What does this fold into?
Amino acid sequence: MRVLVVEDHDEVSELVCRALEKDGHRVTRAASVAEADNRLFHDEHDAVVLDLGLPDGHGVAWCRRVRSDGVRLPILILTAQSSVATRVAGLDAGADDFLAKPFAVAELRARVRALGRRGPLQRPSELQSGSLHLDFSARRARVDGNEVPLTAREWSIIELLTSRGGRVVNRSDITETLWGEANEAAAASLEVLIGRIRKKLGTGFIRTVRGEGYASG
It folds into this structure.
């Protein structure tokens, strides 16, 4: 897998690159937003490992911009800015996963492997299913022509499931991607939010695969 590592700290960048190269990945480095743009749009990559505190911009803003430009590569945020608010901002900007510094190298390698299994996002710009219409660009949902309010976290779940094209997404993958960890509290929150989404958009929109996870209907 070809991985772009966007990190301005030399020691951390070297550690990440060595770890990923041990797994056989081909790694490209960037130490700034400008360099990340140049690398991303001139070379082919399969995933991005992204720091947030870059010398010429913030990683969240960069992530949001490249998503709006149509970039669908999986993005893992790797940063010392590990507050819940920062984590939510990164995921809402379009990141797929979040790992706080300091980190275990084995976990970093595992998370990048998981990103590779997911592949690039294939989320459509709009989705029409019966009376349901979803506009992902504007984040607007309508049922029978009436707009339905959805929270940012509900949108994140919907986007993750629809990006998999009907394939089942394991509960642990969903909670690790959107909550940053797979524990009982995150699993309970996920079940509540799935119930709310079904109530708002219809029971057939998300199907449960017993013992595995969820898929878009």
